[in-house]
Design a protein that fits this description.
Blueprint (H helix, E strand, L loop, with lengths): L5 E11 L7 E12 L4 E5 L6 H8 L7 E6 L2 E2 L5 H8 L2 E4 L13 H11 L8 H11 L16 H13 L5 E5 L7 H18 L2 E5 L3 H7 L2 E6 L2 E7 H6 L4 H18 L3
Parallel strand pairs: 3-8, 3-9, 6-7, 7-8
Antiparallel strand pairs: 1-2, 1-4, 4-5, 9-10
This protein binds adenosine-5'-triphosphate.
Organism: Humitalea rosea
Keywords: ATP-binding, Nucleotide-binding, Transport
GO molecular function, one term: ATP hydrolysis activity
C-alpha cells in the first residue's frame, strides 16, 4: 500500500455539552483511519454521529483533544497558524450550502481570485485568465466570473465552489454534504464532476454524506460513524454487501426498504 496522504490516530474531539453545565460532549471518540493519495473516502452515519466534526478537525478547523493527524508523515496536530500555512493549500473544504460559502458582495470571479492572490500563485495580470480557466474546468462559462452569487443557481454555485477549492491544487478535499441541497438531476451532474475532477487531478477526497446511494456511486471506501466512533471501514462494495456491524446493516436496511418502495408501483 502507498504511504497514506493523511493518517488519523486515536482522534478525540470534545465540545462543551449545552445540556450539562460543566459537561463535555465527545463528538469524535478515538477515531483512527488513513486516506491514501487519490482515494475517495465516504464518511457516512446518521445526524450527530460526528462526520462534520471529524472533517473539520482533519482541516484543523477544530482542535483535537487527543490523538494525532499526520499529513504525508508530518505531524500537523499542534502546528500553529504560521506552521500550518504552507499545508493549508493542500487541504480544502466544500460545504453543503454554496450560497452561504460565498460573500454576497463579491463576484464569483473575485471569490476565485482571493486564494490565488493570498498564496501569491498568480501574477495580477494573469488573474482574470486563471479564474476563467478555473471556471471552465468545472463546466462554467468564463463570463460567470462577473456574476454575483445570488445570480447563479445552486448547481452553478456549487461548481464555482469546487472551482475555488481547486484553484490551489489541493491534495485533499473535504466535501461536507456537498450535493445534499441540490435537485436530484443537478446532484448527479455535480457527482460526475467530482468524479471527473478526482480522476483528472488525482486528489483525495473525504466525502461526508448521509446518502448511502451517493456514497456507493462515488466512494472507493466507506467509513461508518456512530456516536463519534468509527464502526467499520472498508472497500465500498464490501461494506454494502457484507456489513460487519448491526448498525451498518440497519443503515443499509433503511436504504433497501426505500429502494423497494420506489420500485413498487403505486
Ligand atoms: N461547534 C460545536 N459546538 C458544540 N457541539 C457541537 C459543535 N459541532 C458539533 N457539535 C455536536 O457534536 C456532535 C457531532 O456533530 P456533527 O455535526 O459532527 O455530526 P454529523 O454526523 O456531521 O451530523 P449532521 O449530519 O447532522 O451534520 C453532535 O452532538 C453536535 O451537536
Amino acid at each position: 500500500m502507498r504511504d497514506p496522504l493523511l493518517s488519523i490516530e486515536d482522534l478525540v474531539v470534545e465540545f462543551r455539552d449545552p445540556h450539562r453545565p460543566g459537561g463535555v460532549l465527545r463528538a469524535v471518540d478515538g477515531v483512527s483511519l488513513t486516506i491514501a493519495p487519490g482515494e475517495i473516502l465516504g464518511l457516512v452515519g446518521e445526524s450527530g454521529s460526528g462526520k462534520t466534526t471529524l472533517g473539520k478537525t482533519i482541516l484543523r478547523l477544530y482542535e483535537p483533544r487527543e490523538g494525532r493527524l499526520r499529513l504525508k508523515g508530518l505531524d500537523i496536530t499542534h502546528l500553529d497558524e504560521a506552521g500550518l500555512r504552507p499545508h493549508r493549500r493542500a487541504m480544502q473544504m466544500v460545504f453543503q450550502d454554496p450560497l452561504s460559502s460565498f460573500n454576497p458582495r463579491h463576484t464569483v470571479g473575485e471569490a476565485l481570485a482571493v486564494p490565488l492572490r493570498l498564496h501569491r500563485l498568480c501574477a495580477p495580470s494573469d488573474l482574470a485568465a486563471r479564474v476563467a480557466r478555473s471556471l471552465e474546468e468545472v463546466g462554467l462559462r468564463p463570463d460567470f466570473a462577473d456574476r454575483y452569487p445570488h445570480q447563479m443557481s445552486g448547481g452553478q454555485l456549487q461548481r464555482a465552489a469546487i472551482g475555488r477549492a481547486l484553484t490551489l491544487s489541493p491534495e485533499l478535499i473535504v466535501a461536507d454534504e456537498a450535493v445534499s441541497k441540490l435537485d436530484v438531476s443537478v446532484r448527479a451532474q455535480i457527482l460526475n464532476l467530482l468524479r471527473a475532477v478526482q480522476a483528472r487531478t488525482g486528489l483525495a477526497m473525504v466525502f461526508i454524506t448521509h446518502d448511502l446511494h451517493v456514497a456507493r456511486f462515488l466512494c472507493h471506501r466507506i467509513a461508518v460513524m456512530h456516536f463519534g466512533k468509527l464502526l467499520e471501514i472498508g472497500p465500498t462494495e464490501d461494506v454494502f454487501q457484507h456489513p460487519q456491524h448491526d448498525y451498518t446493516r440497519a443503515l443499509l436496511g433503511t436504504l433497501h426498504a426505500r429502494e423497494a418502495r420506489a420500485r413498487t408501483p403505486s
